[in-house]
Amino acid sequence: MNVIDVTNLTKSFGSFTAVDHISFNVGEGELFGFLGANGAGKTTAMRMLCGLSAPTSGEARVAGFDVYKETEKIKQHIGYMSQKFSLYGDLKVWENIRLYGGIYGLSGKKLKEKTDELLHVLDLEGERNTLVDSLPLGWKQKLAFSVAIIHDPRIVFLDEPTGGVDPVTRRQFWELIYQAAERGITVFVTTHYMDEAEYCNRVSIMVDGKIEALDSPAALKASFNTDNMNDVFHALARKAKRGE
């Protein structure tokens, strides 16, 4: 069963087409990578799927809901983590958890239980009253991801979640992603780190607003006779530049 279905989705800003007639689907429980260089159109595509930006044309359904007419219903069934982690630095750790839990529809006893549970799982009980701005970057990242799935959404959208962090923290973050996937949450993640493709069930590679390839990492590497996803990306970029 697909939780995301996209057909010829397009987003233009005046004469500039940021997302150019892309089509793909994502299965329930899948860990789906949306790869491409900065400026390839990944974030623009994600914002349309999250109901944050209206498409120019094309069709898309997320969690069974139409991206044109049912954006509020989409928002109720997804989690979202932006590149900037979406946390409020001048609020305490527990205040951020309660704030986002409330935004996602949790309240009362359920919200308190989820807050305490999250502090324990993240080993942040001792930092409960710490301002988020005072936390190390890796902790902010883990907290932002955890509040994005505090309500157990069907899908979580992660926009460049590992940008600007060290390799060790990146690996730790992917462990959190795997844990979410094991809980049955579909993960849709954008990244410009080609090595992160290896963590995904399938990846879509975008070049200049278009999807140039979509398959499992193993199949893509085999088709280009390489064991390195960077080679795949550069080959696709050269092909797109030649207009093939």
UniProtKB/TrEMBL annotation:
PROSITE patterns per record: ABC_TRANSPORTER_2
Residue ranges occupied by any ABC transporter domain in the UniProt entry: 4-233
Keyword terms, alphabetized: ATP-binding, Nucleotide-binding
Domain of life: Bacteria
GO molecular function, one term: ATP hydrolysis activity
Listed InterPro entries: AAA+_ATPase, ABC_transporter-like_ATP-bd, P-loop_NTPase
Protein name: ABC-2 type transport system ATP-binding protein
